[in-house]
Amino acid sequence: MDWNPALIWLAIALLLGLAELSSGGLVLLSLGVAAALTSALAALGLTLPWQLLAMGVFSGILIPLAVKVIRPWFSPAGVAYGTTGTGVEKGHTYTTLKRDFDGASGVKINGDFYRLRVAETGETVLPEGSLVIFHHFDGTTAVVSHVQT
After folding, report:
1. At what angle do helices 27-43 and 5-23 cross, to 10 degrees?
2. pLDDT tens for residues 41-96?
3. What percentage of the chain has pLDDT greater than the value 70?
4. DSSP letters along the chain, please?
5. What distance in Å separates the CA atoms of residue 59 and residue 122, rounded to the nearest whole number?
6. Residue 52 CB-half CA count within 13 A
7. Which neighbouring-strand residues pair with 107?
8. Are 128 and 97 in contact, with CB atoms under 8 Å apart?
9. For the chain, how big is the Rg over CA atoms in Å?
């Protein structure tokens, strides 16, 4: 088998597509599509500098398109993944829950259950349905205070 530049770009595209299966960020898939498009240009006979320029242009167009436009389609509305613990929840009001298997008191933040501790008293058990204000995380414990009614 004769390895011409078009086949090499196509092999790179397939490897990047496979690598995307482990990341899920759509960046490697975008690079794979850019490499496949570059493969088509290499099959037309473009020289290596033009191929590299084309790969850069395709990547510059496809990566922002995939990250800003396509990736949000795969995330539920209203959930800001990767922001839990950065302080964006500070001051928000949450309703306490009881966990089924052990009865622990906690709050759900971005879909995840966190045990709670009241900042003023150190309590870790509150009645289900109590309103609390989130302050910060102490490890994996949500430090909260009672809502003043």
Report:
1. 170
2. 999 999 999 999 999 999 999 999 998 888 777 766 655 555 666 677 888 899 99
3. 91
4. ----HHHHHHHHHHHHHHHHHHH-SSHHHHHHHHHHHHHHHHHTT--HHHHHHHHHHHHHHHHHHIIIIIGGGGS-TT--TT-TTTTTTTT-EEE-EE-TTT--EEEEETTEEEEEEETTT------TT-EEEEEEEETTEEEEEEPP-
5. 52
6. 3
7. 114
8. yes
9. 25
Residue showing tokens 């995380």? 137
> Please, what sign has the CA dihedral across residues 8, 62, 74, 84?
positive
Query: Which of 30-39, 77-86, 136-145 shows the lowest per-residue confidence on average (mean pLDDT)?
Result: 77-86
